[in-house]
Each structure stands twice: as C-alpha cells, then as structure tokens.
Specification:
It contains 7 helices and 5 strands. By secondary structure, the protein is of the alpha/beta class. It has one domain: Flavin prenyltransferase-like (Rossmann fold, 3-Layer(aba) Sandwich). The strands form 2 sheets. It has a 3-stranded parallel sheet with strand order 3-4-5. Strand 4, helix 6 and strand 5 form a beta-alpha-beta unit. The longest helix is centred in the C-terminal third of the chain and has 15 residues.
Length: 191
Amino acid sequence: MTGASGAIIGVRLLEALARSDVETHLVVSKWAQQTLEHETDYRIADLRDMADVYYGPSDMGAAVSSGSFVTEAMVIAPCSARSMAAIANGFGEHLVHRAADVILKERRKLVLVVRESPLNEIHLENMLKLARMGVGILPPMPAFYNHPQSVEDIVEHIVARALDQLNVPADFAKRWDGDMKNRTAKIEPIK
C-alpha cells in the first residue's frame, strides 16, 4: 500500500486474500499508514494481523526485495502517482518500490490500483510505459451496472477486479450477466 487516498481498497483486498489460499506479504509505506489512519478506523497493527508476513517500508533486506524469493504477483492498492512514477523509472525509494522493481525484472505479474484524478500527461505516460511492460493498470473506477448501494459495494467491485487480475476467485463480485433489465434508478440531484 502507498499513500494515495483509497486505503480501504488495500484493506479489503488484504481481507479477501486472507480468505483465499494466497500467502500475503504486506508492505505499507509511511504515507500509506498515515492515510490509512486518516481515512479508516484501521491501524497498522490490524493490517499486520491480516497478512501472513509484514515488512516495514525501510526493510530493504526483506525477502520480497530479492528476485530469488519466488512470488506469483504483486498488487499495490492504492498506488500513488508518485509510487507509479518511481516504479516506471526504476527509482526505489522504499520497499514497495524495490519489491515492484523485482517483480518487473523477474517478469511476474504487477497490478497497480492507481488512485489519481485528473490524470496529467506524466501520469498517462508512466501508465503507458508500465502497461507496455505488462503491468496491469487498474484505476479504481466504479461500475454502475451492478447497482451499487454503498461505498462498500463500489470498493468490493474494485477489489474483485484486482483479484481477477490475479486469477483469485472473488465469489462476492456482482458480475455483469448481460441482462439489460429496464430498471428505473432514482438519481438524487446534486444540491
């Protein structure tokens, strides 16, 4: 997790992975911890308890900092534009960046849940550069075909999309089924 808004996405992804048979290794940047504590009731200790292994952001000797430590994939959720730029340009300031660099050099699956809006030319160029390297770029875009009733519904959709990138089942996902029912949604005007 890095310091972009949307810490709950990282929390819910970690919770979903904890219910699967996936072994999780968690790194939370300094700014991600501050954002987590600002946006949610969760603390870093809560996340440590959810993960199989936790590393501090300055632990450059962590297992995930070496390509000889075999992993299947890495997701950064949320991913700040700063972290995306660091990864795109090989500038590893902390363990999240270093671990992503290892994933890239070993040609493993990397997914970035980039939380920034609006996007400027630099953001788009970094996304394109990473996408060309095979990185999954997954901005946390809400879907409305599933008729979300809450922020939690929107977060679950984003988490399900991230899990899809990893081929991890997301049985809670409300998937598009092709049924174009005529539903009259009540949209409240902006006041």
